Amino acid sequence: MESFKHIQTAHCENGVTVSLLKHNGVEFMTEPLAFGLGSGLFYIHIPFMKVNNGPAISFRTMPGAIFKRTCKSLDIKVERKKFKSKIEAQSFLNEKLSEGIPVGCQVGVFHLNYFPKAYRFHFNAHNLIVFGQEDGKYLISDPVMETTTTLFPEELEKVRFAQGALAPKGQLYFPKTISDISDERLRNAINKGIKRNCRDMLHIPGGIAGVKGINYTANKIRGWRDKLGERQAALYLGQIVRMQEEIGTGGGGFRFLYAAFLDEASEILGNDKLLNISDQFTKSGDLWRDSALQMSGIFKGRLTSQKDYDNCASLLNEISNVEKEAFKQLSKIVIK
Amino acid sequence: MKKSDLPQDKSDLVNFTREVCYVKNENGKYEAELSSGWDVKTDALNSAWLDIENRITEAKNLFISGEASPIQYYMELKLMDFTVLAGYTGFWKWQINKHKNPESFNRLNDGKLQKYADAFGVTLMELKKPSF
Q1: Closest chain A residue to B5 measured between Cα atoms?
Q2: Distance (Å, rounded) from C-alpha A71 to C-alpha A58?
Q3: pLDDT in tens, A303-319
Q4: Cβ <8 Å between B84 and A52
Q5: Inter-chain CB proximity A263 and B44 less than 8 Å
Q6: Which candidate from B6, B35, B84 shows the least CB-CB separation from A122?
Q7: What does the DSSP 8-state code read for residue A164?
Q8: 3-state SS, residue A175
Q9: What percent of chain A has pLDDT over 90?
Q10: Nearest-CA neighbor of A16 among A166, A174, A167, A155?
């Protein structure tokens, strides 16, 4: 078996994608590229739903989509399996490992013992790679970690069968067959990834997702102080900041990661215009960081007036405009 | 974000990992750089935990005053919502809601109580009489 190489990335699913593809000979794969091919950038604020007693907001596309889309666009066949039985889930994993195949697993974070306690919520869309067995333990490559780690079989079983929203049900996945990837296929894949991302951010129906979704949140923020009271409203803002900046986004709610992707794409496609658009996403990421700073003033209790909430909301409106303009220009460029 | 602006603040990630952030280097190119944390995020995380502590205390007081069963307390302590607890116990959400009531809780047999105890990772004794 070719030895497995651990790669640290900002986001877990990007990391699993990059590591598994590189392991299978797709040497050129990088985190920004995987994120862009998978059209990873998104925004959604789901109304009437709560996560950890706060608003349900996401800055990226749905779990599993990045691996799936990136592989598909490069014509890589993927095997993905869920299990009802814990025993079957383990024996299938063992079988793949004995064949020398590192496997991506969806897991819950709450029982993931090597995580710091402060980060252990019931979040079930974390991803890691199991790449072998040694001394009765599984060898784990968790992309957010600087080095590899290990889990006992019962520990791994617990996180693979975590319960709650997005319960992993033992889900595992790995690339099956990879043919040679031509330059042309890569260029087409980049174009497709960008187009799909433009569509998701500009044209998704309804007002809660894409660039319109950011304005939806802005409007909500204007009303939170009166509606929820200062304590609850501040907690809600804290939740936005955590979803945006917490370990795994690469900063600025994945916006810097997307800017990095456009940098790479401009080189591969030989198109300088993409560099200019990359700068616009850098600006958006910087504005997201500014808004986090402003929000932190509120949840630290330093800022308390309605005007401070309005300032956060205005920043979000500005971000929405910046991203709208950037994606509009982007959609014109990629159409050949 | 410029590489020179990347915060290197202390955070709960210490001794665990540093996280990858994407920043612009001196030549205007993007690169991955490690950060030990950012105070803004740490404050957000701390305020979330402060709220959790408050909720646990409230649930504890409701149990002591006899207004709620230990289910409520342990749900807050273990950060569980109805979906999570229903998944681990096999009970329906409305049943769990009912079991939050002390009268209904006291009528449960040990078999059913054991399901809750397992889900919360405590013994049957600890479930019936939480030690604070």
Answers
A1: A286
A2: 23
A3: 999 999 999 999 999 99
A4: no
A5: no
A6: B84
A7: S
A8: strand
A9: 95
A10: A174
B18 touches chain A (CB under 8 A): yes
Q: How many residue pairs bridge chain A and chain B with CB atoms within 8 Å of each other?
A: 126
> What's the rounded Cα separation, in Å, for the pair A37 and A18?
12
Contact A286, A256 (CB under 8 A): no
DSSP code per residue over chain B:
-BGGG--B---TTTTT--EEEEEE-TTS-EEEEEE-B-HHHHHHHHHHHHHHHHHHHHHHHHHHTTSS-HHHHHHHHTT--HHHHHHHH---HHHHHHHTSHHHHHT--HHHHHHHHHHHT--HHHHHS---
Whether A145 and B84 lie within 8 Å, measured CB to CB: no
Domains of chain B: 3-37 (no CATH), 54-128 (1.10.260)
- Nearest to A257, CA basis, from A57, A20, A21, A18: A18
What is the nearest CA distance from A99 to chain B, expressed in angstroms? 31
The domain made up of A12-177 has a fold known as Cathepsin B; Chain A (3.90.70)
Ramachandran angles phi, psi of A115, nearest 5° = -75, 145
| B-chain residues near A286 (CB < 8 A) | 1
Bridge partners of A128, per DSSP, are A105
Q: How confident is the model at residue A247 (pLDDT cuts 50, 70, 90)?
A: confident
Which residue reads 């079991």 in tokens?
Answer: B99
Nearest to A296 among B1, B21, B40 (CB): B40
ipTM of the complex: 0.93
Span(s) in chain A for CATH 3.90.70.10: 12-177
CA distance A306 to A311: 9
Q: How far is CA A328 from the centre of its chain?
A: 23
Quote the distance between the C-alpha of residue A306 and its chain's center: 32
- Give me A169's structure tokens: 């049900």
Average pLDDT, rounded, for chain A:
96
Nearest alpha-carbon partner for A319 in A23, A59, A100, A20: A59
